[in-house]
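Re: your question from the hallway

Yes, I did run it. Sequences:
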Amino acid sequence: MTATTLPSSPGRSASRWLHRHPRARLVSLIGAPAAWMLVLYVGSLASLFLTSLYRLNEDGSGIDQVIGVQNYRTLIDKSVYLDIAARTIKIAVLVTLLDIVLALPIAFFIAKVVKARWRRLLVAAVLVPLWASYLVKAFSWRAIIGSPGGVLDKTFGFSPNYGEVGLIIVLAYLWLPYMIVPIYSGLERLPDSLLDASSDLGAHFGFTFRKVVLPLLFPSIVAGSVFTFSLSLGDYIAVDLVGGKTQVIGSVVYDNFSADLPFAAAFAVVPVIVMVAYILGIRRTGALENL
Amino acid sequence: MQFTRRVRMLFGGITGLVLAFLYLPLAIIVVLSFNTVSSLSWPPKGFTFRWWRAAFHSEGARDALVVSLKTATGATLVALVLGLLAALAVHRFAFFGRESLNLMIVLPIALPGIVTGIALNAAFRQAGVEFGLLTLIIAHATFCIVVLYNNLLARFRRLSPNLEEASADLGAHTFQTFRYVTFPLLRTALLAGGLLAFGLSFDEIVVTTFTAGAGLETLPIWIFRNLSRGEQQPIVTVVATAVMLMSVIPVWVAQRLTSDDGPLTGGTR
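Structure:
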């Protein structure tokens, strides 16, 4: 009796060839996406860095492609830019902390407390605002916190008005779903039996939450913080709408973009350094797998 | 696990407050879109459909909508293909540079949009590429890939490798296995990820500002330009309300399709 031979076809011979050449198989899968990200994204970042080393020509009408660090020197020498960078990072940290505090209870309630049939609805309720226009949400807050005449002012006679406090509230609002989603999925992976075990051993709820839930949720919280931190670090539109006179990295980059691209590029490198340091710092927490 | 009444009330209460916080600004926009006065004054003075009719006939909004739809479609298609290829490679092979590839794909959403935008702008300029729909689609696809990639990896982790092996044992070659076994198992993840990528692209403004060039206007850019023009503000609230209502459907569908994968992550701007 002879072994059955499968009918040959172009698909089969290509498939055979690929099977014998695992490296070709890998390259055929990875080639296009890797080339795209390398050329377009990493290449663009390199181009950003290169541009940041250029300078405006004498009359400011074009860019001299001469390499030098004068833009970075300006950033370091003028205390106003250091202040702006420090303020931006401070705002991003505060926004992130505020979002953690707000997201933990709601994510816990949806994942662990509420009955299963309500769960899907509540998750959708958290996700829908994410897809409502970012601009319009920021603009709505302009109508809410403006003073005098805003919604808060008319209703309660009090409002933070446009400025740093208002900006922190609005940014925390805008990015909150980005924090709720990873924390919620972290809680979904956390077996209920761990909570039961903790309470069977006599721990009250607060203790279980601090000693069992929070440590296991840490990577998810860090994953959420990548979004809230990074999005706050680069924002300039909400800053423009509700930030009053607050100046942040994003607004300086945007304002200089058309007049002095090399300088704008140099200041845009600052959030890149901050985020790369942050990502390298959290790599071991396993947070990147939770993004 | 059983929770005491106090814990349930406390967490339920906070959840209610946070949801109110999330929806209050959206509700205000919806209310203002029916306001008779053409400014963002509060409280509203009366009810009218005038702005809805005006928005429907606004040519600027319609053109911008078309540009947004084209961009989002193009970016989603590119992201579908590249995200699928990358997810297949990362899932199936342990190779040198796998972590770097992973980081590279995630980076566009981990870095602020203004960085991505200005970097792409500088690169397009240096390469002498003219700004337009093509640069916009390329830029959007770059940050949409991660959505597909994450959704598909989550799905792969749940799939049993036995299915593909069984298919090969039964005589199917690689492409048949993909066509008849793997692809059907991925279909819902592809659809859900595609919807999210589409939504992400549709609402994006920062990267768009830097990569669209002068003549091209997406819906968010149109909204931004008109927000500062007083007489157009009510029409903007109408457009925003309409977009919001339309986005409920894809979010709901995407969530149902992937509810076993855990929630939809990786969607950012």
